[in-house]
Prior knowledge:
Blueprint: H1 4-13, H2 20-46, H3 62-86, H4 91-121, E1 124-129, E2 132-137, H5 138-141, E3 155-157, H6 161-197, H7 207-221
Antiparallel strand pairs: 1-2, 1-3
Amino acid sequence: MMSMAEIVQLKFLTGATSSPSSERLWAAGQTLVTLGSLSVFSGVIAVFPVFSYKLWFTGWSILIACPIWNGALAITAGVLLLLAHRGWTQRYLWEASFTFVILSIMGCPIHFAIALESALLGPYCFYSFSGIAGTNYLGYAVAFPFRYAKFPSVCMDPPHYEEYHLMLQVLDLCLSFAMLCASLTALAKFSSRLIRNGDVNVSFTKGGTRNVLNAKMEGLIY
């Protein structure tokens, strides 16, 4: 079993250095962790409309859960990228990162579509409009798509819920698009490695040295 000091020494003696694509994957990992955390936070606070204490306005649906599970996917992909960059000899970390990056790319368009639909549908609240009152999504009660500028104060309870709901959906739209861009960046780097080297494991700037170094390490580690 090689110690970390021996691995670093071997890397130094062979002249191998981390490739620029590895640094970009590190940046993509940090971005995915940050954006994923914000997405989970937006999903959690959406459970409590305008931080209302009234239990009948709390809810759990696909509109609320989507930012949470998609954010969790982004966080997982980002953490795996960061761990893979630190433990660059562990091939399974790069392969797991590749898998979760693909899952994140698949989840982001769904997140974007649900946030857009939710924005057009309007918030779920107790409304009063033209003598008609009830509790429902405003897009079903007033007009679809709900026009926020034309009906600014339809929600009676919780008050000002229209602005809160729209703010959350705009945040989710921006987050889903940003996470998609970060995930696509990581996928592009993985794809270039796959085409150039035949695997998604970490590569080095000196192509010939990479194979010798990996062969030595695989013989000593595994």
